From TrEMBL:
Keyword rRNA-binding in annotation: no
Record-annotated PTS EIIA type-1 domain positions: 20-124
UniProt keyword terms in alphabetical order: Kinase, Phosphotransferase system, Sugar transport, Transferase, Transport
Main localization of the protein described in the UniProt heading: cytoplasm
NCBIfam families (UniProt xref): PTBA
KW Acyltransferase (keyword) present: no
Superkingdom in the source lineage: Bacteria
Protein name: PTS glucose transporter subunit IIA
Location within or outside the cell: Cytoplasm
C-alpha cells in the first residue's frame, strides 16, 4: 500500500470540483485536488521515488511499487510558460516525501487569470485501487490524501 500525501497546504476539494473536464472527469486517473493557500509556497513530493516528468507547472514521481503520482499546479498553467514557477529538483532525481519540488505563487497564478486548483492524480490506477480519499476539508502539506494498493 502506497500512501500519497498532500503536496500543498490548502483545502481538499475533490476532482469533480476541478475547473477542467480532463481532470474533473478523471480521464487522467483517479485522485483528488487541492485549492492551495494563496501565498508563495513550495509544492512537495507526495511519495518517495524518482522524478520521471518535470515541468514548471507539473511533476510526476514514481515510487518503488511503480505507482506514478502526478501533481499539476493549477489549471491551464502551462500557458504561463514557466513564469512564476521555480524548479527545485531535476528530472531523474530521487526525492523523499515532503521534499520541495517547485516554488510557486498560487495568488500570482490566480492574478494571471488561471485557476490555482491543483489535481493530485494516481496515474494508471482505478478508483477501486484507492482508499481513504480526502476530497474535502483543510489539509496541510504532508498529510495523507489517499492510499493506493
Amino acid at each position: 500500500m502506497t500512501t500519497v500525501t498532500s503536496p500543498l497546504a490548502g483545502r481538499a476539494i475533490g476532482l469533480t470540483a476541478v475547473p477542467d473536464p480532463v481532470f474533473s472527469g478523471a480521464m487522467v486517473g483517479p485522485g483528488t485536488a487541492i485549492d492551495p493557500v494563496r501565498e508563495k509556497t513550495e509544492a512537495v513530493a507526495p511519495v518517495d521515488g524518482i522524478v520521471v516528468s518535470l515541468h514548471p507547472h507539473a511533476f510526476v514521481v514514481v515510487d518503488s511499487d511503480g505507482h506514478g503520482v502526478l501533481t499539476h499546479l493549477g489549471i491551464d498553467t502551462v500557458q504561463l510558460n514557466g513564469e512564476g514557477f521555480e524548479l527545485l529538483v531535476a528530472k531523474g532525481d530521487t526525492v523523499t516525501r515532503g521534499q520541495s519540488m517547485v516554488r510557486w505563487d498560487p495568488a500570482a497564478v490566480e492574478a494571471a487569470g488561471k485557476s490555482p486548483v491543483s489535481p493530485v492524480i494516481a496515474l494508471e490506477a482505478t478508483a477501486e485501487s484507492l482508499s481513504g480519499l480526502v476530497d474535502e476539508g483543510e489539509i496541510e502539506a504532508g498529510q495523507p490524501l489517499f492510499g493506493w494498493s
